[in-house]
């Protein structure tokens, strides 16, 4: 709605405003200052001739110049004992049980695989007294803060089956006919 209003004001009397701008006299640009060096070159033919003439002495000196370029030797940084600590170097075997063929075999410490995540979430959901956040953190080499966040924000899906009586009630319901 606001675009229509602004478009109306923007397009109001466009042709008259454009013709008024076109019919205005253009301002004359400020006069350029003549520089002494350029003026002397254009006026004096001796300077033009001097610039265009080849100097044999300079040409022979230029032929004697030989430039050879080489890339500096490539240096490989060996680190020199400045290794940063890395969690990915420490690996642990996964605890998968019967789902062993579905996931990776080794996982860095402080991380879990997808199958492990689903397993621990399901275990916590079914038996929260046994599978506490502290036990999960110790079992899977995780930080307690991350496990608490995982248990709070991620909930595994559940499958619910409706009783047969509910199914009959739903199927016996006849839809209304539109007239």
Automatic annotation (TrEMBL):
It comes from the Eukaryota. One of its GO terms (biological process) is mitochondrial respiratory chain complex I assembly. InterPro entries: NDUFAF4 (IPR009622). Residues 17-27 have a biased composition (Basic and acidic residues). Residues 17-43 are annotated as: Disordered. GO terms for cellular component: mitochondrion. Belongs to the NDUFAF4 family. Binds calmodulin. Interacts with NDUFAF3. This is NADH dehydrogenase [ubiquinone] 1 alpha subcomplex assembly factor 4. It comes from Rhodinocichla rosea. The gene is Ndufaf4.
């Amino acid at each position: 709605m606001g675009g229509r209003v602004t478009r109306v004001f923007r397009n109001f009397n466009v042709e008259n405003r454009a013709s008024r701008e076109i019919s205005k006299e253009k301002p004359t640009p400020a006069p350029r200052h003549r520089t002494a060096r350029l003026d002397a070159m254009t006026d004096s033919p001796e300077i033009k001739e001097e610039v265009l003439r080849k100097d044999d002495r300079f040409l022979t000196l230029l032929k004697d110049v030989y430039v050879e370029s080489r890339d500096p030797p490539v240096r490989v940084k060996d680190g020199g004992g400045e290794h940063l600590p890395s969690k990915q170097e420490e690996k642990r075997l996964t605890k998968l049980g019967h789902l062993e063929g579905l996931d990776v075999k080794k996982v860095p410490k402080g991380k879990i695989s997808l199958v492990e995540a689903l397993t621990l979430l399901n275990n916590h959901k079914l038996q929260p007294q046994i599978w506490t956040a502290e036990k999960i953190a110790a079992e899977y080499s995780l930080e307690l803060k991350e496990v608490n966040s995982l248990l709070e924000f991620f909930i595994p899906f559940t499958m619910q089956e409706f009783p047969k009586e509910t199914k009959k009630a739903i199927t016996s319901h006849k839809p209304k006919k539109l007239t």
